[in-house]
Specification:
Layout: E1 11-14, H1 24-33, E2 44-48, E3 54-61, E4 64-71, E5 87-90, H2 92-99
Length: about 120
Amino acid sequence: MMRPSKDLPCVYLCTHPVDFRKAIGGLSVLVEDELALNPFDPTLFVFVNRRKDKIKILYWEKNGFCLWYKRLEKQTFKWPREFDTDTLTLTGEQLNWLLDGFDLWRNKPHDSLDYQSVG
């Protein structure tokens, strides 16, 4: 089974749906021009179609682009609603949860606390 590593430090999720006729060339231009990111960075770029039943993941691997594709047969991916930015940053583990059908935006963990003193 091919699956993104849960240990990936950074995954970019494109928040708006894209035209799924786009292949590697079109998606890499979208990353560079519309998202203002470097498609050659060692990270994953995740896209969804309008019906949210298909996902494409673009990434650069040493000497060429790779494109990973998943199509759901009956359900849809839980995608973020109404964000002010074009991208959200996820971890590899969160991406796998998204691929498994979890809604990352409704099921939130407790906030992390960062104290400097117990007093």
